């Protein structure tokens, strides 16, 4: 009987070795397939990320170009505004009546009456009264 067992032991060991090898190879294939699937998914994510990066880069460059153009326009407008402000200042200096009415308006705000306006600003009575009425109208709260 020992001889019979000794005859079958190598055969059983060989069969077990084959089954074990087959299980290990099968497990290896499944692991490889899972890794290949993960690798393919990672490549897809990377491809999508690159496309999104390129799209965002293009949008950024467009925004940057627009911002540069807009800042140039703002600089031009600021320059134009300075020129207009200078011209307005020059016109105010050339218009003595405008100064006179500005002064009269300030006096009305401070509480001057018609006689004070007529004396201090050399205004006719009608203009002094008109300034007072305008100031009173502007001081009243608007009703709706």
What does this molecule look like?
It is a single chain. With 144 residues, the chain is mainly α. Helix content is 90%, strand content 0%. The longest helix is centred in the middle third of the chain and has 93 residues, at 2-94. The chain is rod-shaped, with a radius of gyration of 47 Å.
List keywords for this structure.
144 residues; mainly alpha; 4 helices; 0% strand; rod-shaped
Unreliable stretches covering 5 or more consecutive residues:
none
Structural class: mainly alpha
Q: Distance between termini?
A: 120 Å
E-strand count: 0
Instruction: Compute the number of helices.
Output: 4
**What does the radius of gyration come to?**
47 Å
Fraction of residues in β-strands: under 5%
> What is the assembly state of the chains in this entry?
single chain
Average residue-wise pLDDT? 88
Helix content: over 70%
**Overall morphology:** rod-shaped
Major beta sheet summary: none
Brief summary:
By secondary structure, this protein is an all-alpha fold. Helices cover 90% and strands 0% of the residues.
Topology:
Elements: H1 2-94, H2 96-109, H3 114-121, H4 125-139
